[in-house]
Write a structure and sequence with these properties.
Elements (H helix, E strand, L loop, with lengths): L1 H28 L3 H8 L1
Length: 41
């Protein structure tokens, strides 16, 4: 039972990490940097 729970936890963690990195990449494709630069200047 413990091994199954451990495997399920690792699987969920891997899926969460992949989704997290996917969101970061999608945000980096359209960076809001110019807006911040204008506000700083």
């Amino acid at each position: 039972m413990k091994t199954k729970i451990l495997m399920a936890t690792l699987l969920v963690a891997a899926i969460g990490a992949s989704v997290y990195f996917y969101v970061i990449r999608s945000k980096q494709i359209e960076p809001p940097i110019p807006k911040f630069d204008k506000s700083l200047v």
